[in-house]
Amino acid sequence: MLNSKIKTAIKLLISSFLLTNSAQSIAEDEVYLATLKQDKVTQVINISKRIGYDNQPHFTPDSQAVLYSAMFVEGINDSAQTDSMRFDISTGVTTNLTKSTASEYSPTVMLNGEDFSVIYVGDDGRQRFSSYPLAGGKATSLVTQLDKNFADIGYHVWLNTSELLMFVLAEPMQLQRVNLSTGKSDIIDTDIGRTLRKVPNSKLFSYNKAVGQQWQMQLFDPENNKTQQSVTLPKDNMYYAWHVDGRLISAIGAKLVINSVQASDSKWQDWHDVTSYCSGSVTRLTMSADSQYLAFVCNTPD
């Protein structure tokens, strides 16, 4: 059963990152881009460079750009609205890809390479599923492929062109395998965390699950619909990313740590210290497919 403290923490985090309409209750989040050479950090830059919520970095498959979510508020008491941004690494230019009146979260490039999917917050406050062209343009609703009563969606990762793993806001939180072609969905697990990933050079996908006071990694095989346990994440952190070489990256405060999950006695080892750039804690992080870049979010108190 999910520990009550962890359950409360999940609800607060979900509220602050996805459902909050007041700018005053949002902590400062900045997206940073680290350049790597032979697995060593050679440069770190802040690519969001503004006050407010900037989060959920995602590399394009060609490793040339970073998508992320940025929240905008016109006045101190106005409701917030979030768009999907694209930062071009070679030029340093940032482009707003959505420019909508609704809020979009978790921009994720789809397997066709031409569109990206988002969690779309409609006028009714429901968190649904939509897509936009990477080149810019209008949204296409993917809600029609799901039952209209399908629960609100928090996060997602594509299994193939028609299936996804989705973090579904339920009590407790659910991991569901969803087929957009048929509308069928199956509950894979519960009490899960918010990071869903494809394991590099593998048929497996990953998520984490609350076990006691910490988060344990789980590896999901879509061929047999089975899950196996893996390593435990560092204390007080539910975020992780996969290194292209198969190691697992997480953070303790603003210190990045790495784990060779293939070994049965694997331990978290120091990897890179980014405390000179981040005065708070590293939360979300992700590595580019060419292993030349690492994007991470620094969260500091409001």
What would you note in describing this structure?
By secondary structure, the chain is mainly β. The protein has one domain: 6 Propeller (Neuraminidase), CATH 2.120.10.30. 5% of the residues lie in helices and 48% in strands. It contains one helix and 24 strands. It has one helix at 4-19; strands at 28-37, 40-46, 54-59, 65-72, 81-88, 94-96, 103-109, 115-121, 127-133, 140-141, 153-158, 163-168, 174-179, 185-190, 197-198, 205-211, 214-221, 226-232, 241-242, 248-252, 255-259, 269-273, 281-287, 293-300. The strands form six sheets. Strands 2-1-24-23 form a four-stranded antiparallel sheet, with no helix packed on it. A four-stranded antiparallel sheet has the order 3-4-5-6, with no helix packed on it. A hairpin with a 5-residue loop joins strand 7 (103-109) and strand 8. The protein is globular. The protein starts with a helix and ends with a strand. The model is unreliable at 1-25 (pLDDT under 50).
